Amino acid sequence: MRKLKNWDKKTWLSSKNYILEFNKFLNKKVKFNKNTTILDIGCGRANIISALQKKYKFKNQPIGIDIVANKDVKKNIIFKKINALKYLKNKGKYDVILIKQTIHFFSKSNLNRLLSLSKKSLNNKGKILIFSLKTNNNKIPCFKKMRKNLEKSLKRDEVLFKIIKKNLKKITYTNFNFKVSISKQKYVRMIKERYISCLLNMSNKEIQFGISEIKSKYKNQIKFTDTLKCICYRK
Ligand SMILES: C[S@@+](CC[C@H](N)C(=O)[O-])C[C@H]1O[C@@H](n2cnc3c(N)ncnc32)[C@H](O)[C@@H]1O
Question: 217 CA to middle of ligand 1, Å?
């Protein structure tokens, strides 16, 4: 499978407003202070922990890990290019472990490993925060084949949620909603760049076909709500 490289490259997911809203949401779950230690699993360009570092000036810079090292990863955090399962064996301890839009990259057994290792890597009263696309009535703008792939992946996510519930047990659920308004031109560029994993395995022809479908289906400004389910575990 191709690797996901353009998810947070100049998309709404890397916009100032999104990061601000997301971090406000996080702050309701975790009372950050200078001593908070954070690990972001599957951090991408590390926009989220970088903004947190700017705001809270943590004594220990947050650590972001990813199997892809993008050129423009933020510099005010510690980035490591490593598989999460390998990294978590190094016995570090954190107050917050963030796993945002990353669980779908794991097999069922590896997700169980990831969760068990994450629990062991938490400080007392530490939290694991898992974010994943909402699975029912998801509003991400899609062309037909993309919707089919996305629905398949969301069905699998529901199985992953059951694994999470079984492994972590005492968890709470909330939703993070972000209102997106994006020009069709920009969204077409995101699709061309295969911003979301349900596009990774499509042929160039399928992508081109899908783009013409998007062009005829949507108005010049595309508006929708991007909703993430947040699963919170506290040690
Ligand atoms: C959809 S992106 C989300 C990026 C970021 N968390 C965000 O929400 O903006 C998922 C990220 O997980 C990374 N990833 C996938 N499998 C991984 C693994 N086993 N260990 C670490 N990172 C992984 C991918 O390379 C990708 O950057």
Answer: 30
